[in-house]
């Protein structure tokens, strides 16, 4: 008896143009009833109200606040590979798991895995990290390499496009954000290899417009040590 299509421009990565088949995100509103004309008019009125009041979901837009996710709506649960990098003995894989109140970040080093559960640095992601301005980060020392290095990794809101890591007496480095296309409400990052003992002074998450949207606090900056694998 009626159908409306409400379209908004699809939000593509800043580094690439939207493909021709993905320029729009569309909300389809349709209605059906086998009742009398008066009921049909009421259904059409409801459809029209939906069309007039619908808006894009806030946290799907660049700069959106993941803290605005409605806690009453069940979140997608699962475990996703956000990205991988390195080579040989320094190869890594970054995973995020999302399961109600049990969210976590896992950094795996597959070349060193001798048995399940070994050579994995896993941290729970506290609910506070979903608040605006927060960034979760952790350090790992790759002590098995001839030239020992450190990696800084973490979880960030999906609105983050890059992470700038500022270092004492060294130029800052920029880490690409991984997994923005995954169903989880987390994305992640892993720094380039840093000489072990490098002092990190600031970790800042930037959106596509290079505006600061989150910053790491606490352990990663206040403690020079990092996670050691045995």
Q: How many strands? A: 15
Beta-strand residue percentage = 35-45%
Largest sheet: spatial strand order: 7-8-11-10-9-13-14
The total domain count is 2
Helix content: under 10%
Task: Report the uncertain regions.
Answer: 63-71
DSSP summary: helix tally: 2
- Straight-line N-to-C gap: 66 Å
Q: What letter string, H or E per element, gives the SSE order?
A: EEHEEEEEEEEEEEEHE
Shape: elongated
Rg calc: 22 Å
Q: Strand count, sense and closure of the main sheet? A: 7 strands, mixed, barrel
| SSE class | mainly beta
Give the overall pLDDT as a whole number: 77
Could you describe the 3D structure shown?
This protein is mainly β and 230 residues long. The protein has 2 helices and 15 strands. The strands form 3 sheets. A 7-stranded mixed barrel has the order 7-8-11-10-9-13-14. Strand 9 and strand 10 form a beta hairpin. The longest helix is centred in the first third of the chain and has 17 residues, at 37-53. The radius of gyration is 22 Å and the shape is elongated. 22% of the residues are buried.
């Amino acid at each position: 008896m009626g159908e409306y299509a409400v379209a908004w421009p699809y939000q593509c990565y800043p580094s690439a143009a939207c493909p021709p088949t993905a320029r729009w995100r569309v909300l389809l509103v349709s209605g059906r009833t086998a009742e009398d004309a008066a009921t049909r008019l009421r259904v059409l009125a409801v459809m029209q109200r939906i069309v007039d009041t619908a808006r894009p979901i806030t946290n799907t837009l660049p700069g959106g606040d993941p803290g605005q996710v409605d806690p009453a709506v069940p979140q997608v649960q699962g475990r996703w590979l956000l990205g991988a990098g390195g080579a040989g003995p320094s190869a890594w894989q970054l995973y995020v798991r999302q399961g109600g109140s049990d969210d976590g970040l896992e950094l795996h080093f597959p070349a060193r895995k001798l048995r399940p559960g070994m050579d994995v640095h896993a941290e729970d992601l506290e609910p506070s990290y979903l608040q605006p301005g927060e960034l979760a980060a952790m350090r790992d020392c790759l002590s098995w390499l001839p030239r020992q290095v450190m990696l800084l990794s973490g979880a960030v809101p999906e609105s983050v496009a890059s992470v700038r890591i500022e270092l004492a007496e060294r130029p800052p480095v920029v880490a690409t954000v991984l997994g923005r296309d995954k169903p989880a409400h987390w994305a992640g990052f892993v720094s380039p290899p840093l000489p072990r003992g490098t002092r990190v002074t600031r970790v800042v998450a930037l959106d596509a417009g290079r505006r600061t949207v989150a910053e790491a606090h606490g352990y990663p900056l206040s403690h020079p040590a990092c996670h050691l694998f045995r």
